[in-house]
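Margin note: ligand = zinc ion.
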Amino acid sequence: MRASRFLLFSIGEHELWHYHTLSVVLRTLTWSLNALFEGVHPTLDVHGKSLPPHLQKVAGTLITSTALCFCVTEIRGDWSWHKKLWRFWKTSWVGKKMCHWCRAESTGCWEGLYWNLTESSSWVDKEFTLEEFMEERLPPYGICI
Ligand SMILES: [Zn+2]
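Resulting structure:
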């Protein structure tokens, strides 16, 4: 189990420049991990440009001689990390939209209140679909570089 989890990146929170630092790191990690998934050394760099000479030598060749295949299956972390990573849009534990996974609210009509656990609730057992999550909880800017 321990051999299935790898630390890929570490940085002090005080070293982050807003969300930009994580965007750059995640783009590079995605490029690299996609190559591991495909099992082939990339032919272009992370920005779609020519590789430096030492990487051009292996471009297009198999990464390993065995049939290993790597795949990202989970991004683990506590709520503080997930809030920083996903930049949940206009949600806060102390705000009106206080849940990142559904439409429960801290104020407003009875149907939407997070303490309404009755059948009249508009959010119980109605977590977002992937598409709803992306549309309602991810920020409308700064996703791609
Ligand atoms: Zn919720």
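Residues 5 and 74 are 10 Å apart (CA to CA).
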